[in-house]
Every structure is written in C-alpha cells, then in structure tokens.
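Continued from yesterday's entry.
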Amino acid sequence: MAKKEFKAGLYAVISGVIVAVVLVLLTIFAFTTRYTAFKPEKVAQTYVDTIVQSGDGYNAYKNTLVSKNQKYGDFIINAYMLPYVNDGDDVKQAEFVGKGSEEETKAIDTVYETMYDYYIELINTYGYDDYDSIFSNYFAKLSEVRKEVYGDDFMNTDYMFGAFEANVSAYGRSLTGAEETLAADGKTVLQEATKGIYQEMYGDDYKFTATVKECTALSEDEAKAYVAEYKDRITPVAQSGEAKADEFGLEDRTYEKKILFFTQKKSDNKKSDMISALEKLDCSNDITAVDKCVIEVALADGTVVATQELYVVQIGNSWYVDNTNVDTSALYLAK
C-alpha cells in the first residue's frame, strides 16, 4: 500500500481551517442523510459509493443500523474508546503538547505514521465488515504508541478520533491521489501532490459510478424470517457489554471535583455507557420491512469493477443497511 506524503504534525498544529471544513462537511452530511434515508435504493447506493470511492468503510457505517439508536461517534466512544480514556486532572501531558514546537510536530507525525501502517494492516486483515476487530485493535495499539512517543499516559476521545480519522483520510488519498495543498502562508506545503492507486489501476481520468440494478421488497413472511435471523446475529453482540466492561475493569463511580472554591459531585459511568452502547445495536423489534438490493460499480466506459449485494431494512420512515449481513470485500478494489 502506498505511503502517505502528508505532514500530519504541521497539519494538526494549523487546525483552525480543519475544524471549519469538518463543520461544513457535517452540515452537508446531516442534510443529505435526512433525505436519502427515506429511499431504500438511495441508502444502498450511498453505502456502496462511500466505500468504493476511497475505501471509506468507516463513514459508510453512518448509513447502517449501527447509527439507528445512537450517534455513530458516541457508539465508537462508548463501545471502544472508554477503556483508554485517561484525561483526568491528575494526568499530565508531555510538556511539549500545545506548544506548536518542532518536537510536538515530530511526535504527531510519528504517531500518525506508525498508526497508518497499522491501520492498513487492520484493513487488509479484517475489513470494516468486522468493525469490532478494527476498532478494538486500533485503539489498544494507539494507547501503546502514544505512551512510547509522548512519554505520558494521557488519552482522550478527541486525540483518538484525530489519529483514526487522519489515517482514514490518508488511506483515501493513497487510493485517489491528491493535489498539492498549501498552508495559509501560501508557501508551506501541507499535502504534496500524489498519484493514487486507483489512477495507476484505471488511468488518471478514472471515474466510478455506483448504480442500483435491483432493489426488491421481501414478502411479509420473508421479512419476518429475515428479522428473526437478524436477531440471532445481533443478540450476542448486544448482550456482550457487561462482560466486555468487566474484562477492562470498567466501573461506574461518583467522585468530587474541586472547581475554584467549590466542590462538585461528578459521575463517571464507563461501565453503564459501554453496556448501553452495545445494547442499542439491537433494532430487531423495530424493523417493519426488508429490501434486497444489488449495486454495480462501473467505470465510465461501462466496465463493471464490482457488484455488491446487501439488505436494507425499514424502521419508521427511514431505511438502513443491515451491516450484520454483508460482505463488502469486493468494494476494496486496491486489494
């Protein structure tokens, strides 16, 4: 897999523009998702298109049942990040953090690059159909790498998302290529121009189009049987929260925190939050209809490069991809 040519440390220090762009993208996503969710074929098409355009199985989950009963980010925090969160008042960060120094830039680059190699390894080994293995292994490794590079025990959710999403973006750029990006000074190169793997495979002017070839509603009996099978698949996962929390030694606790001249009682419910996050994955009682969809991904000349079959389910007026019953390996074209 091609290595990224990206100055992650500098990019992290000059973060104001990134925050603004992220807010704009989140607004666009919220607007488009609100309307695509009403059509089963559009949900299926968006899910496939998100993966195939830049290998982004991570963000594709926003179209699935994982995001039905909870925000996708909250699910990742509560089900996977909590065991490593260590950002209390008594946990000090390395002295160079927040200084914008060369030492900080080097530390960020080292962590991002080390984790990028590991991210590629996870993608090639598991793929996002097994998101549990992706997230579980990634954040455990990130905790180790942070300690090695920074020499501190600090970890919070912003730091974890920052590293993970930087790797997701870098992987996408390795596939699609990237144009040169300059900092606000008009001179400093944040992103060097690169040629992506897709360009090498399909030509510089390649273009993927995901088209729904078929979207068929299951009969009432077929849908009922499908939901029963879905419940069998999701129940062990939804009920695994307590055992998982106990494995990490997570507990609910109440403690006192001093704020200026006052003492305030605070709650830390890591165990309950993990249990709840996994329990919310079970949507079996809410599904009212099921469609089977087939999506083709083709180049501009009509050459089909991938075909994806999946099931979408209806809850209320919205449709979601059933991520418990799909194999997206064919969409990772670079493999």
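--- second protein ---
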Amino acid sequence: MAKTIPMIITNNNILVKDKNSNEFKTFTIPGLDSPANIPFYHLFAEKIAESQYYFKEFMHQLYGKKLSKYILAIIVPDDTSKLESIFINEFFVNSGVCKAVAQMQMAQALSKTDESYISVSKSIRNVILEYICNNETVVSKYYDIDTYSPEKVAEDAKILHIDIEYKDVPVYVNNFNMNMDELLQMGEIISPKAFMEKIAVIDVEKL
C-alpha cells in the first residue's frame, strides 16, 4: 500500500510533512514574487522545469531517493479553481516526486468527527464560506478580500444551506494563515497547530 505525504499549499508557500521529525518543512523558490491577489504557484508555470527540479531536490532531502512509492495528499486553499487544481496535480506528478496525488480543500480537513459544519477561511483573493457535509463541499460563497463585510459573512453563514435552518451546525474559523481577526467571533477557531495536527494522518480514500 502506498504511503501518504501530507502537504499544504498556503497563501505564500508549500509545507511538507518531514518523514523523520513529523514536522512540516517549508518549500519556497527564491525570486518568485507573486503580484497581489495571485497565488504564488502561478509563477511555477513560468519556470516549470526549474521549479520542479528544486521541489524534487527538496523532497529528496526529506524522503530520500525512492519517491515513487508515495502519494502526495495535497491540501489547497478553499478558493482553488478547477483549472488551478489540474495544474497543481500535473505539476507535482510530473516532478517525479510521487506515485500519485490526491487533493482536498482546507475546509474539508477541519473536522474528522462532524457530519456537517460551516467553514470560513481567507485566501489572498477571497473570504470563503462553505457548508461541508460528509467530507464534501455542498455549497460555497466567495467575498472579495478587499470589499467584504464581516457582518455580511456572519449573516450568510446562518442561511448558507437549508440544512442549517433546521439543525445546529458548528462553525469553524480556519485561522491557519493567522489572518482572520475580523471573523474570529463567528465560531470555533482552528489554529495553525490544530490544523496541522488534523492532517498529520490523512485517509487518502476520502480525498
């Protein structure tokens, strides 16, 4: 059975769980300064061979040379588009660092015990409100990072889906990027440490 390597694409870098220490190590490429509101990994496409080479070398340091037996379990920001998801998958598969990749949004990783819940998070582009049920995103709503109203987000969280009107659904505030100050009052706060503990062991079958 293939082994899984948890990996997080954050707002400004990539975190990979180290094989030996179980800590998350940071991968960055010097000199890639992304314009505002554009995910940093978009620039990988401009220097794709170079970027893949540096990532492979980084993975060799963490996991040795035999990378083909691993599956990368990639956690992505909640507003990652379908096209971006395809690029992310292709980038890592073609880097020669894994057997395969599996991908899920941050919102889907916030709870392993709740059947359904509301997630609120913030990327470099949007505030994202999602209703998660049985590990799947049922409905999502986006608010521009520069013009959103915290009050509006909180109001919408109460009516995001009809299920919410008939049962108590917990709200989780994903503060992984430490950028949720105006929204912390909305629900239970998930700290960076708590988030990484939640994804330290990932069931790939659910991705």
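The mean pLDDT is 90. The helical segments are 48-63, 82-93, 150-157, 192-199. Will compare against the first tomorrow.
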